[in-house]
Amino acid sequence: MRLTPTQEVRQANPAPTAGSPGICGKFCQLQSAEEGPSSDPHATDYRAQADSRQLIKQLSATPTIPAQSAAGEPQNVPEAQAALRANKEVFFFRLFSLRLRTLVDKKRVIQSRAVTNSKAPANFVALFEGFQQFDGDLNKLQQFVEINETAMSKILKKSRMKELYLHRAVEVQPCFNRDVLRDLSDRATTARLELEAWAEGENIQFDAARPADRMVVQSFGPDEDDLDMQILQSATTGNLQTLREWTAKLQSSPDARDRATRTFLAAINEFSDDVLQVLLESGLVDVYAEDDINERNCLHESAISGREFVFKAGLAAGVDISRSDVYGRIPLHYACMHGRVEMVRELLAAGPHTVDMMDHDNFTPLIHSIVKNQLACAEQVLCNNARIDPASESDHIPLNLACQHGSLPIVKMLLERRAKVLPDAEGLYPQHMVARASQSPQLLLLLKQHGVDLNQRDKLYQWTPLFHAASEGCVDCLRTLLELGVDSDAIDEKGLAAMYYAAWEGHLECMLLLWAERAKSKPPQRPLDIMNGLKLQGPGGSVDSQMTDFAAPDSMDTADGIPDLELPPPIIPLRRYGHNFLDKKVFVQILFEPGSAGSILFDQAGRHPAARLTISSKLSDLIPRTVMLPIQEDSRIISFQIDNLETFAVDFEIFPTFGSKVIAKTVALPVVFKAEDSSTGSCCLPLFDPRLRSIGQLRFGFQVIKPYHGDPLEITHFATYWKATSAVDSEHNGLVTGSSLTGDHVQLFVQLTKDGVPILHPRFTVDHHGIEIPVCHLTLAQFRAIGAERGVDRSEMIQFLQTRAVEDLAQAHRVLATSFLSLKEVFQHLPLGVNVNLSILYPSAAEERALNMTSLLDVNSFADAILTDVFDQARVARENNPDFMRSVVFTSYNPNICIALNWKQPNCKSATTIDFL
């Protein structure tokens, strides 16, 4: 068959073999999160970069056409540099350009044919798959560019000539030319969309600005490929005679061999062995032929579909079993991926040298068997001496991948063959992969039996397996590690314990296990000390003395009570003294779920493995936001401050990572964010492609915080909380930033009645004659009546607050918890010398459903009612005593109410409360 441009490139650059991944594989080695599961997507493989530099040197030494000299350029440029410049674009883009040109040409040929009764030609699937493969390869190149840009910037971060070097020596290279990448991406996306539309009977031109990409071809009669497929369809009903007659007539056709071969390759996946046998017996089929799009031969197709008849026929005819397709995969790769055990055995018998061949993703047959959990296939390749240890640092490690995928039998086979325990590109050992990704704690026992150190620290953050299990919430693995006696007191490079990360990620059961283990052999210790990584009390000092030493910098650093500036670790966001607050604007926060299976779901899984989401609004003063997909934890929250909810609509558009052609689009109308009944909610919107077909869905949560509806405190008269005091709270140390507020505070549990009055009660419900009634269902009068029935004397309570509260804060706390008083009454009678901590009781969504709290006010109304009482008492207190003000701090277990209180005013501190059990 005629060589395609891609095959010509392959002849010029031979297909990669084991240990030599080739040009295309060079940048594939650096891709981990999407393609290679054993390395960090944000890490740079500098050894692979060195290999690429060697490849460039070899390329520059190859005799080529001399580079043309630009005007004014010196003529004495070294020959090697001129050759390198001439080959830059070949090195990075020739394969992509030729591949895309071939696919576009095939698309034009298909579209030029007359439309028949069939939905699409027989080679439509292969062509569409070719465009998807091109998108995947281009995405790898784009990731390669991003990683190397970041790495180059970090390498030069201390250089005074950094910007100049990046602009003059790095960004001018073709691989960093985003315009070229964008053009390739746009052309591929446009061609794929047009092909999809044409296959469904629509003649749509998505890019009218490219006349060169359009070609007018006269439409002839019915397409020959469609006629051939119709003959095959009739043969499936048992009418093989029609097929024999067709093959006999085909003998006289000048392109008989090509037509019969194309028909045979297209029929492998769908038609019976009898049909395929008739085609083979005709003598017209070239069994050595390859598809001109995906470059697969009959052995590839039979390994994918499991057709034993075609497979045996191909082997008997001597079809090359080491021939790779456009993915770099040989038939053995596909047999291992799909669990074709007999085919694996026969392929290995026919070509033992193929057992360690790698595809463009650097996956060997063994790696494919592990990833697809094909135990029998893995056993076959291991019995044929498959390599179990990496040959270079860029290779994947079978043992690590088996541990990551939780395959106990495969891990056992690898360990029995004495596989080495090595760190992957991210610095993680097999035991770390098990602890953070596996739900099979038996793997830890197996690793322990083979002498693997379960206290081994990784090379990333100096974490032991215990840290990974605690951080990821793998309770069974954590319990197994503790039972095996690992060091539960280990700290990482930041001086933090595993308890800290379990608490940060909210894994309560892991926290309880670690707390119980610590309580067995250690003296009591405060929870904050453990989460902050402070050392236990030693024989020569106390915890308090250690805390004093920790928080006692030089006197020059603690002037005015402000500690020296010390950047927190990346896991904790940077805090500022003070915060912005709403005046007249509305705060809208959009929350996405991170991960590949989070907020954005396409109907076809894996259709767009990497893209970017652009979030914009038609309001002119809002800056569009861009989020890379899949959404990461640090980019899951998008915030806007707007003037009017009535006109606020959000456009969501998905683009290729470097392209400018819209893949999908949707819009959230103003009615979504009005939040008339609630300040929070969730929404699910359909994603539409450019042809307005639904191709997926976008889910997100949102919160709307409106400005305080009343008369706020004047900042010129009432100091903000970060300016009101200067002493640093000694009870908050380590990396958990403490409040600047000091002094003793009495805790008041505050919630609202049905008529919107803030009252004091420590529980969401009130027990009235054995019936639990939610407080939000009672009016203030009903609430007081229940208190009176319980014998609560309001006058006695008020007298206690006025006379004895300052002397006995503990008793004041107990009295107020059951006082059945309103917040306004407490402020009126509690002396100004007593600071208050308003612990706001606002239920979570689960608690609201469980208690059937149908009369609960929304977050904005709830916060406004409480702030009104706080501001009113502040004004009264200032009139009575201008030189002294009561300290007020808000706390709550509900983060939504904390966000609302934080944005509605700058005068009082608001913080989310976390209980440690």
UniProtKB/TrEMBL annotation:
Protein's GO biological process: lipid metabolic process
ANK repeat residue numbers: 327-351, 426-459, 461-493
PROSITE patterns: ANK_REP_REGION (PS50297), ANK_REPEAT (PS50088), GP_PDE (PS51704)
Domain GP-PDE: 715-917
Region (Disordered), start-end ranges: 1-23
Keywords linked to the UniProt accession: ANK repeat, Repeat
Pfam families linked: Ank_2, C2_GDE1, GDPD
Biased composition (Polar residues): 1-10
Molecular functions per Gene Ontology: phosphoric diester hydrolase activity
Protein name as it appears in the record: Ankyrin repeat protein nuc-2
